[in-house]
């Protein structure tokens, strides 16, 4: 493998405000091979501009590159075995190759490469969008005021409602995914993932939840919508002045299905002051900061904006919380297998088990 920085000529200034990893901390890719491949598709990497890995994120690798005099992002999955259906670059390309035409918050995808020999895994090239990404539970560099929290709460719900209003047929995505039987298929899929990680021996809370999800009646099927499938604050790039969205990123799990799944996914990341410690340790969004609405208010606002009822929200709440716990189990497994040296991953196993416990509380009607 060849280290980043293969063109040591004049360096172009990177976009202002972009968060980059140091060259030493960036994942090494075979950039000369990538450059030759792209040139064969009329995608010329600008000389003297060293690709750099963007900071943040726990899974997919994102590199800022300059191609045909435009800033783009090369995205590929992480190293090691991938869970079924996850980190799907081809799916992301299919969505973003079309969606940008009518949904302004979708960056355009320019190219998909299925040949893993080029960059170590399939990859795609999408437009770079400048914007502030608020990662974790910190609101910096924004002021931690009531107004900031209120604006961000409203922005999240309004943006989700706008996404779910997209006419799939108008962008050629009416055949995306399999919306029929969406809840049951996802339930069985995530239970299977949990069993695979646990080698068939689920913890007691996880087993109880798996049985609950197996027994609960399927929610009533509404009109399918375009789902992001991981809708949360750090997957939205925002204008730091207006706090309005500039782009929604990370579409590798996008599909078509029940809108309540995306709403429940957002709520699964939404911590409240009275939550158990696992939801504080989760630290996925800064909703504990002043001014943020609570989960009930978020759900009610979404219902008011879209006209969708919330009668069937609970099964999706349990499913998406179960899914979240399994995801952290998957990340912890990467730590155990030595596929990542990120110290954060070491505690994800216990976090996952605590999230299963909290999800039992939701299943027992004690909390939204």
List keywords for this structure.
single chain, 368 residues, 9 strands, Aminoglycoside 3'-phosphotransferase, Chain: A, domain 2, two-stranded antiparallel sheet, 2 domains, alpha+beta, Phosphorylase Kinase, domain 1, five-stranded antiparallel β-sheet, disordered N terminus
Topology:
Elements: H1 31-39, E1 52-53, E2 61-67, E3 70-76, H2 89-99, E4 109-113, H3 116-119, E5 123-127, H4 146-164, H5 182-197, H6 204-215, E6 225-227, E7 236-238, E8 245-248, E9 255-257, H7 259-268, H8 277-282, H9 295-306, H10 313-336, H11 348-363
Antiparallel strand pairs: 1-2, 2-3, 3-5, 4-5, 6-9, 7-8
Summarize this entry quickly.
Helices cover 38% and strands 11% of the residues. By secondary structure, it is of the alpha+beta class. It folds into two domains: 31-127, Phosphorylase Kinase, domain 1 (2-Layer Sandwich); 146-363, Aminoglycoside phosphotransferase (APH), C-terminal lobe (Aminoglycoside 3'-phosphotransferase, Chain: A, domain 2), CATH 3.90.1200.10.
Poorly predicted runs of 5 or more residues: 1-10
Total of domains: 2
Radius of gyration, rounded?
20 Å
According to DSSP, the number of beta strands is 9
Average pLDDT, rounded to a whole number, is 92
Strand order of the largest sheet: 1-2-3-5-4
**Overall shape:** globular
What is the terminal-to-terminal distance? 49 Å
CATH architecture grouping of the largest domain: Alpha-Beta Complex
Provide the helix percentage.
Answer: 25-40%
The major β-sheet equals: 5 strands, antiparallel
- Secondary structure class reads alpha+beta
Number of helices: 11
CATH homologous superfamily caption of the largest domain: Aminoglycoside phosphotransferase (APH), C-terminal lobe
How much beta, percentage-wise?
5-15%
H and E string: HEEEHEHEHHHEEEEHHHHH
Q: Could you name the CATH class of the largest domain? A: Alpha Beta
CATH topology of the largest domain: Aminoglycoside 3'-phosphotransferase, Chain: A, domain 2
